[in-house]
Structure formats: C-alpha cells, structure tokens
Amino acid sequence: MAALLELGGVDANYGQLQVLHGVSLSVGEGEVVAVLGGNGAGKTTTLRAVSGMVSTSGDVRFAGERITRASPERVARLGVAHVPEGRGIFSELSVFENLQLGAYLRRDGFGEDYERVRGYFPWLETRRDQQAGTLSGGEQQMLALARALMAGPRLLLLDEPSLGLAPIVVRGLFEIVVELNEKEGLAVLVVEQNAKLALRSSSRAYVLEVGRVALEGPSAELAENESVRKAYLGY
Amino acid sequence: MVQFAQQVVSGLASGSIYAALALAIVIIYRSTGVVNFAQGEMATFTTFIAWTLVDHGVGYWPAFALTLLIAFAGGVALERIVVRPVEGGPVLTIVILTIGLFIMLGGLSNWIWKAEVRSFPPNRPFPTSTWDIGGVAISKQDVGILGVTLGLVLLLYLLFQHTKIGLALRASALNPAASRLVGIRVGWMLALGWGLAAAIGAIAGMFTAAASPPLDPNMMRPVLIYAFAAAVVGGLTSPVGAVLGGLTIGVSLNLIATYDSHLHLDLDRMRLPIALGAILIVLLVRPAGLFGRAAVRRV
Questions:
Q1: Which of A135, A152, A169 is the last residue of a domain?
Q2: Number of other CB atoms surrounding residue A224 within 10 Å
Q3: For testing the chain A interface, which of B165, B180, B181, B297 should be mutated: the one with the most A CBs within 10 Å?
Q4: Do A165 and A63 share a structural domain?
Q5: Does B175 reach chain A within 8 Å, measured CB to CB?
Q6: pTM, rounded to two decimals
Q7: By CB distance 3.0 to 4.6 Å, which of A88, B112, B237, B269 could disulfide with A84?
Q8: From A165, which residue of chain B is nearest by alpha-carbon distance?
Q9: Of A152, A167, A189, which marks where a domain is finished?
Q10: Which of A100, A102, A133 sits opposite B298 (nearest CB)?
Q11: What is the pLDDT of residue B290?
Q12: Do residue A76 and residue B182 have CB atoms under 8 angstroms apart?
C-alpha cells in the first residue's frame, strides 16, 4: 500500500513547550490507523500537526506533497478532513448549514454527497433546520463526522470521537467509520482513549508516550502485547 | 395625531441611519468580539471622500456608489494592514487599536478637509418637497433615506443568509478554528467583514450629512452614541436587533423632542444622556439585549 500520509521525525510545539519529539507514522490508502496513548502523550497534537494547527517541524507529506507548516485551509483543500477534539461543529448554525460548510470547498456534487451522507445518518434530514448546538452529544459527534464527509475527503482525522459519549453511541460511531472504510476506501487516522474499540476497528496502531512513538504494529498484535494490555486495556 | 405620524416617519429616517451604523458595529463585533470605536470616524472620512468627488464634478448618486466601493476597499485594507497584526490577541489590545483609529481618522479628516463648515451634498439628493397622505405631510427626503438604507440592509441580509460567502462569513465569526478546517480563509472573511461594515457606515455618514447639514468632521460623534445604543439594545450580535434598535431610538428621540415643547423640560438637550441611559439600562437589566440570544449549547 502506498502511503497517503507520512510523518517523518515530526516535532511540534506550543510556544516554548515541545509536545512531539520526532514522531514518525504513516497511513496507507484505504487504511484505518489508530493512535493510542494517555493524556498529554501528544495524540491530539499529532493530528494538529497534520492539519497545520500547531507549529511543526520535520516532514509531513500528504499524497507525496510536503505539507509541513501548510495552513489548515490548504490541508483541507488537499483532501484532509479533520474532526477536532470537541467536535468543531458550528453550534449556532443549523444542521444543514453545518453540512453546507463541510462542502465549502466543493464546486459541485452537493446533492449526491448529501444523499450519500444521509445514507449513513438518516436522521439528519428530519433535523436539518435544528440548531446544531441543541443536538445531543452523540448526534453532534455524528454531525461532525457527516460534515467532514461532505468535503469528500481522502483522509479523515478523528480526534477522540468517544469523548463524553455513551458506549452504545460510541460503538455505532465506530461501526460507521469501519463501514466508510470498507465501502468507500476512506483512509482514517483516529486518536482514541478507548483502546479496545480503537484496536478492533483499525488495521495498525501506534502508541504514543510523552510525545514519542513507543510502540507500533498491527492492531491485532498490539492488543496481545503485555504492556499495551496493562496500560491501556486494563487486564 | 398628524404631528405624531410626521414625527414617526422622520424618526424612522434618522433611525435608519443609526441602524446602518449599528449594523456596521454588529458585523465587526460578531467577528472580532470588540466594538469598533472608529466606526463613526470611518463614516465621516468616507463622507468627505464623497464630498471631494462631488466637488470634482461627479454626480451625487455616482459619487454615492463610488464611495461605497472606496469605503469597502478601505475597510478591507484597514483590517489587513492595521487589525491583522493584533488578531487573536487580547481583546483590550484590539479595543485600544480601534480607539487609536478613532483618533487618527478624526485627526486626518480635520487635517485634510479642515474644520470648515460645508454643505454636502450641495444639492439635496432627495427632493425637499413633501407628500400629503391623509393630511400628513411626509418628507420625501425622510422616505428616501429610509428606503435606500433599508434596501441596502436587506441586500446585506440576503448576502449573509442566502449565499455561500455569507455562510462562510457567519461561520468564521462563530468558530474560526473549525472554519479553517473546512477550508475557509478566515483572515479574508474578517477583512471582508470590515469592508462591508465600512461601506454600510459610509451610507450612514452620507445620509447624516444630507439629513442634518452641515458636513463637519465631528458630525458622527453623537450618531455613533445612538448607534451604540441601538446595537446594545438589539443585543450586539443580532443584525435584526441592531436595525430595530436603531429605528426605535430614532423614533423615540424624535418623539421626546416633539412633545417636550409642551412639557418645557428641555429634554432635547438630553438626547445623548438618554441614549447612554438606554445603554446602561439594557446592560444592567438584560445584557443579551432584546434580540441577542445566548447560544444554546448541550455537551
């Protein structure tokens, strides 16, 4: 598999505080990759380094193009959709306006995309004029995902989709992500605290510890790994 | 009753001027979170540009349209050059910056055009005659000002609510980080907002000069206070609120002045304190304004 996203020796810092120390990882075309790690390990920052939301050095490449220090607008234009921590929906706008914004960079095909996204989230149509901030937490997370899909991305960055949601909602969400990957070949880089679910949904995974890649490998193998089990799976 | 109707119409006309300036304040407040204190001086400055154009032989309405374009470009440039460096900085920095702009533009107007009294426009843009509707004499100028201002406000509304760029403008103001992630160039949207605010402020300036001549470098100072009051009454984030607030304040001030002639309280001198009182009361009693809505959120 050709690497769609490739990070080589990436450092990232917020002002004086360096958060990533030489992180290298890759996501192939049509691959689901998980990033695990405790609080402050640099998971969110890894995604932010890809989409240009943090000061970064090293080598970040998307589809062969160097995007280190590219602006978020440009990274989005190249086909990366980032669902940030806290969902990043426009809570004051309607559900439909959120979807329109997702398709902001698209010139045409809005109708088809809307049909396709509704296939995954049928409830969107009945709530299209509702203010997004009044949706339940799970619905907001799904709207954030739907909005990202409206961009027709090649790579989806998902930051802690399970945060604050009921387990059944989280499972539903991951089922949709897996389905998107299997049906449409969408590549996904997902950061997740829920290691069990993340490992089950991905083909490969990385474990971050204090800004460095501590372990990497096929998800099934990592799930059997002694230290991963103790630290992240709790058995 | 006749006098009442006449005063309401003329109050609506001056109210629409306050509404326009209040709208300009709201547009910038929504995107930067600060009140632009320089909004009135920007309007004065552009009105002097219109005067200069007319002085050089351009017709009133062509000069009006040209001034809107110049104001728009000026607003965009101001944001890119002056405001951009402090973007995302502490609110206080931006507030001080707009106060600086207020002083600088006021000084420039005085310096370039001197503080002499001018009549602008030399010929009234609207006929000075009146229509007689059921015994009520309605000034054509009042109706003209009200019509043109509200027409442009309506255009602005359509731009914000029914176009893609309008949606991007609103999104950038609400959530800049998420907007950038969907590919919106937020920096340019902020500049566009300043451009639109400057243009709509220019309308307020030119009509202030027409409605209450003469044109002088300090003419927008009281208007700015009324516009602040209108924006605050409307809730600072609500364009609809700003327009209704402006019209309400215009009509109220006019009625106060009219009926005071019977009461002999000399309330006409109290126009500014009354407007400031309205700001104070709204901020104390209902800080979200009459139309501003605290965003509903669920986590």
A1: A152
A2: 12
A3: B181
A4: yes
A5: yes
A6: 0.85
A7: A88
A8: B299
A9: A152
A10: A133
A11: 74
A12: yes
A108 and A206 part of one domain: no
- Give contacts of B172 with chain A, Cβ < 8 Å: none
Instruction: Please answer whether residues A141 and A165 qualify as being in contact, where contact means their C-beta atoms are separated by less than 8 angstroms.
Output: yes
pLDDT at B299: 43
List pLDDT tens digits, range A42-96: 999 999 999 999 999 999 999 999 999 899 999 999 999 999 988 789 999 999 9
Q: What is the per-residue pLDDT across B28-58, written as a single tens digit (0 to 9) for each?
A: 998 877 889 999 999 999 999 999 999 898 9
Residues A136 and A172 in one domain: no
Residue of A nearest to B174 (CA): A90
Can you give the residue range of the structural domain that contains A62? 3-79+153-233
Residues in chain B with CB shorter than 8 Å from the CB of A90 are: 171, 174-175, 178
Q: Which residues of B touch A93 (CB under 8 A)?
A: 167, 170-171, 174
User: Which residues of chain B fall below pLDDT 50?
Assistant: 295-299
Chain B contact probe: residue of A48, A90, A142, A163 with most B CBs at under 10 A: A90
Q: Are residues A75 and A175 in the same domain?
A: yes
